[in-house]
Structure formats: C-alpha cells, structure tokens
C-alpha cells in the first residue's frame, strides 16, 4: 500500500499502473484521485475510451469493459465505484482476484470507494484483494481525512488558483464553521471566490456571510455564548436551530459534547499535558483535534466545580429531553431551555 503523496507523484509523472484500489474515509479524495487517473490515462477521446461503472454493476460488466477492444487504438480506462467485494459470493470474489492478478496489457481499471465503507484493518477480503492487486502490478492507496492544518492549506491553495487570498487562519475558521467534509469545503471555497473579486482577500466576515454553518458549528455558538453569559444570543441561536427543524436531542448531544471536551482539556492541563496530547488519548480524528484547542480557550474561565455541576445538569436533562421529544416532537425544547438557564446560572455564579 502506498501513501497519498506517492500516488499523486506517480500520476503526475504519468506512471500509470494497470489496476488501482482506492479506499479510505474521505470520499472526496478517493473520487478525486480516480478522476485524476482517468484524465491521465485517457487524455483524448474519453467519450470512446473512458467507462464509468456504478456500484450496482456486476463483475462481468466490469470485465467486459476492461477487456473491450479500443476502436481508437488507445488504451481504455474503467472507473468502477463501490463494487461490493465484501458481500459478493466467494466465487465472484475469486474471479475479481484473478482479474486483478492478470490485468490487461495496456488498459486501466480503477476500483474506488466513495460511498461504501471498507474496514482495511479488519476485512480479510480487503487484505486478500490488496495482495492480488499488488501481485498484478497495481496500486492500493488508503485516502483518509486530513488534519485541520492540511485542510487549511488545501483551501488556501484552492482560493489562490482562483486568484483570491485565503489566509490560513481564516481557512481554519472556515473549517470550524463548515465542518471537515472536503466535498462541502471545496464547494464553499468556490462560493466565496464567486462572491469576491479577483485578487481580493477573503475575510472572516465574508465566511460568516456566505458559508453555510453546520449544526455542530451553530451549537458551538450556543456553547460559546453560554460561557460568555450572553443569554439573549443563546436563546436567539437556539430558536433559529429549532426553527430549522433541528431536534432538541441533537442540540443537547452537541452541547454535552462541547462540555465533555472542556472537561477533558481541563483534566489534561491539570495533569501537566498539552491540550493537543489528549486527541490521541481519546481517539479524536486528526481533522477534529482543533475542537480541543477551542475547548481550552473557551473553558479557561470555568473552574472544576462549575464544569462538574454543568455536566451533572446535562446528565439529568438527557433523559427528559429524549422522552419529551419522543412524546411530542419538539417539546424537548422546554427541557433544553431549562438546562440552558441552569448552565447560565452556574457559569455566572461560580457553581453556587
């Protein structure tokens, strides 16, 4: 299995392999590199020599396209997305192994996964298929979510290609607002660039104006306003989320998550650790580690008793919010409002 930078380098050099197996938890990247391979493999006459196969296709469909005669005399590239080798009959899986172990002399087959999730650590079939692909001279690459810093660099570079300037600090703010899904982030960068003039600097205020906030980012605003004691803004943000159809149980869960982050960071600092160090300890994905830095900043004025009292109130309200939502939809909002009032009181009163 090769790393992403090696995959990118070989594609750029035009060193195209007969078989590619692209997996990972970042659907944007798997599809992105599949398309890059296709463009490099079939630079001319893609209408005749590029075939896109959907997940419901059979192995026979893939085989027929891959070994098809090229009417233009150029090589053929087949992009097969999400072929379910995990659930197919064992005989079909063995046929797939045989195909990738004896690839076509010049044609290219790309098996990529942007919807179907493959557990590369536990799947025996994946491990067998990987060996078969490599035996046939092919390439296997796992493309996972990038860290916040890597995402920020990508967004800044994407804006630069469109002749706009997006500072890394603003790019990181954009990630905190829009989430870490690359498909969403790339779309939001395009919107920002369309809104601004050439050679303009994309400001944080422009991100707030143009970009669509995730529910998590909106609830983060509620948590931040809670910590600042800004009751009016808390209830305004809450009402907006409820009006958009976000369930109280979702909002409650995200508020709970924000204070759990603060609790963990406080405990880590008290133990002499840096906030970033607990990302690995508690299994935070690399692209989500920034929430711990936010927690360290936002929770610095809370003492341990306040945090403990808030977590107790969150725990007590959990069942009430869930039960009320089950009984009558958004009636859980009342329990949520009560919780928010109690958190405001604890935050302002030092836990008394």
How are the SSEs placed, and which strands pair?
Elements: H1 4-13, E1 19-23, H2 27-41, H3 46-49, E2 50-53, H4 59-66, E3 77-81, H5 90-101, E4 108-112, H6 124-135, E5 139-142, H7 148-161, H8 168-178, H9 182-195, H10 204-210, H11 215-228, H12 231-243, H13 248-270, H14 277-281, H15 290-298, H16 304-328, H17 332-349
Helix pairs in contact: 1-2, 5-6, 7-8, 7-9, 11-12, 11-13, 12-17, 13-15, 13-16, 16-17
What does this structure look like?
The structure is a single chain. The chain has 352 residues and is of the alpha/beta class. It has helices spanning 4-13, 27-41, 46-49, 59-66, 90-101, 124-135, 148-161, 168-178, 182-195, 204-210, 215-228, 231-243, 248-270, 277-281, 290-298, 304-328, 332-349; strands spanning 19-23, 50-53, 77-81, 108-112, 139-142. It has a five-stranded parallel β-sheet with strand order 2-3-4-1-5, sandwiched between helices. Strand 3 (77-81), helix 5 and strand 4 (108-112) form a beta-alpha-beta unit. Helix 12 (231-243) packs antiparallel against helix 17 (332-349). The protein is elongated and about 75 Å long. The model has no long low-confidence stretch (mean pLDDT 87).
């Amino acid at each position: 299995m090769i790393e992403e930078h090696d995959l990118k380098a070989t594609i750029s050099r035009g060193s195209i392999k007969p078989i590619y197996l692209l997996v990972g938890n970042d659907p944007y990247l798997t599809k992105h590199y599949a398309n890059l391979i296709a463009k490099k493999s079939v630079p001319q006459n893609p209408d005749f020599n590029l075939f896109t196969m959907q997940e419901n296709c059979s192995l026979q469909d893939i085989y027929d396209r891959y070994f098809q005669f090229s009417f233009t005399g150029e090589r053929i590239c087949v992009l097969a997305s999400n072929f379910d080798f995990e659930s197919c009959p064992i005989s079909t899986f063995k046929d797939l192994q045989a195909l990738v172990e004896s690839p076509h002399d010049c044609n290219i087959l790309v098996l990529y996964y942007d919807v179907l999730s493959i557990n590369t650590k536990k799947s025996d079939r994946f491990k067998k298929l990987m060996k078969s692909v490599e035996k046939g001279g092919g390439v296997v690459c796992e493309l996972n979510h990038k860290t916040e810093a890597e995402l920020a660099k990508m967004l800044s570079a994407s804006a630069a290609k469109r002749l706009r300037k997006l500072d890394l600090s603003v790019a990181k703010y954009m990630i905190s607002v829009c989430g870490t899904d690359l498909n969403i982030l790339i779309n939001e960068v395009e919107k920002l660039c369309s809104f601004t003039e050439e050679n303009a600097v994309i400001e944080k205020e422009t991100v707030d104006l143009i970009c669509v906030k995730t529910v998590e980012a909106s609830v983060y605003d509620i948590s931040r306003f809670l910590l600042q004691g800004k009751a009016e803004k808390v209830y305004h943000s809450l009402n907006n989320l409820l009006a958009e159809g976000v369930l109280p149980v979702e909002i409650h869960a995200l508020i709970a998550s924000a204070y759990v982050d603060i609790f963990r960071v406080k405990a880590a600092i008290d133990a002499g650790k840096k906030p970033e160090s607990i990302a690995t300890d508690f299994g935070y994905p690399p692209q989500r580690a920034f929430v711990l830095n936010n927690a360290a900043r936002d929770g610095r004025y809370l003492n341990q008793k306040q945090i403990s009292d808030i977590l107790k109130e969150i725990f007590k309200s959990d069942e009430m919010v869930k039960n009320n939502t089950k009984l009558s939809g958004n009636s859980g909002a009342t329990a949520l409002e009560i919780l928010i009032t109690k958190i405001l009181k604890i935050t302002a009163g030092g836990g008394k």
